[in-house]
Amino acid sequence: MSRADLNPFSYVVLALVGEGGAGAHDIVRMMRRGTAYWSTSPSHYYAEPKRLAKLGYLRAEQTSGKTRPRTHYSLTDRGREALRAWAAEPTSFPRIQSEAVVRLLAADVAGDDAAVAASLAAMRAELDGIDASLAEAEAVAAALPHRERYLLLVHRLGRGLVELHRRWLDDVERELSGQPPE
Prior knowledge:
Shape: elongated
Strand content: 5-15%
Mean pLDDT: 90
CATH topology of the largest domain: Arc Repressor Mutant, subunit A
């Protein structure tokens, strides 16, 4: 059961901390690698673990870092219980915010199909970068045997989303250029 003092992002942080624990810098790195598909600014990944520690869902411990002390977070029994209860709740279809979709929706107002197609095609370079990040994340998964199978399933979704976007871009470019469908 969701708790009033926890929001969906709270569960993202609890899940990323997991049984192995993590520092806020680790959480940011995991997000950049595509470990969880959640969009927020990196500053939230630093603030939320502190908030969860104050509420008793995480334990904060100072550890030595390369240049200064770091805070390492681990799940408390309360955090583990909250995450277990939340994980058992029914899951809804994910919220999707797609700038590309909105640009396509505005194409009739923009009045220049070629410009909109070029704008969307620029996403291909980012998709290549995501592919590279997923390859790195898949390699890292082997170092986390307690999570490897789950991480690989998440990364499989990522690969599928990248491929789906590539196919969608092909369709959009073909349609906006006036080429017949394949």
